[in-house]
Amino acid sequence: MENKKPVENVLEETLKNLRTIIDVDCIVGKPIVKDKVTIIPISKVSVGFVSGGGEYNKDKHTRNLTYPFAGGSGGGCNLTPIGFLSITEKGVEFIKITPDNNVEKLIDIANSFVKSIKS
Fold first, then answer.
1. Which of 34-38, 67-71, 94-98, 106-110 has the highest mean pLDDT?
2. Left if phi > 0, otherwise alpha if psi is -120 to 50, otherwise beta: which for 83?
3. What CA–CA distance (Å, rounded) separates 99 from 108?
4. What is the pLDDT of residues 35-76, one digit of tens each?
5. Mapped to the 3 state alphabet, what secondary structure does the chain carry?
């Protein structure tokens, strides 16, 4: 390895491994073609990780440049399907499979308000 600090090596390996797990096919799926309609699945990927380390010595008062290093990293990812792109002769449309809760709540409140005014 190059002349890097050990914690830099841990971070570099973690990021390299995350890149192999997540690729563009996770977000934009393979197109499904039937007759004149093409459907492309779209997903959202959330990634979190933590990495760190330190050098340790039994005697805190001794100045030594070769302390033993201990380090580690961990992480996870979440893949959530959010919808499909529908491509037809009429054009392109995005079809959500999970409603936007804030917009849905606002529409419900507006409908309730209109109904209460009418009554």
1. 34-38
2. left
3. 13
4. 889 999 988 888 787 877 777 776 666 655 666 777 887 777
5. CCCCCHHHHHHHHHHHHHHHHCCHHHHECCCEEECCEEEEEEEEEEEEEEEEEEECCCCCCCCCCCCCEEEEEEEEEEEEEEEEEEEECCEEEEEECCCCHHHHHHHHHHHHHHHHHHC
